[in-house]
Amino acid sequence: KKSEQELKDEEMELFTKYYMEWKGGKKCDNISYANIPRFYYRLPAEDEVLLQKLREESRAVFLQRKSRELLDNEELQNLWFLLDKHQTSPMIGEEAMINYENFLKVGEKAGPKCKQFFTAKIFAKLLHNDPYGRISIMQFFNYVMRKG
């Protein structure tokens, strides 16, 4: 007579064998599946203390890196000063405007953290029916505050 564990092992072997036959072979023939990167990692269990500590530490490092990318109050004030200094006349009512040429000048002077905001794509996104091809300084500054 076979023990209970031997019966379970045999059952698992048979299941694996029949499942693989039903699935269509031992390995998938399509090589491209091997190139798909892994995107899901299970969360560590409560008893996996080392893995939990590693997860906490990596999250903290990630958040620190992201916070260093954010503009601080002084950098925002400097950006506003530069935008105001390079505004392009005429004003529309009370709203200061800036053209693309001056927009690029401000981008060069604003510093490395601001560089990501001074692209043609962002300028075009904020451009709204201005006859002189300008964007609102206030709208751009608000965009930077929301995204940065």
Automatic annotation (TrEMBL):
InterPro entries listed in its UniProt record: PPP2R3C
Subcellular location: Cytoplasm
Keyword Zinc: no
Name the record gives this protein: P2R3C phosphatase
Record bears the keyword Cell division: no
Taxon lineage: Eukaryota, Metazoa, Chordata, Craniata, Vertebrata
Signal peptide: none
Keywords: Cytoplasm
Species: Toxostoma redivivum (California thrasher)
PANTHER family in alphabetical order: SERINE/THREONINE-PROTEIN PHOSPHATASE 2A REGULATORY SUBUNIT B'' SUBUNIT GAMMA (PTHR12085), SERINE_THREONINE-PROTEIN PHOSPHATASE 2A REGULATORY SUBUNIT B'' SUBUNIT GAMMA (PTHR12085:SF3)
Biological-process GO terms, alphabetical: B cell homeostasis; cortical cytoskeleton organization; microtubule cytoskeleton organization; positive regulation of B cell differentiation; regulation of dephosphorylation; T cell homeostasis
The encoding gene: Ppp2r3c
GO CC, alphabetical: centrosome; cytoplasm; spindle
First-listed, main subcellular location of the protein, grouped into a coarse class: cytoplasm
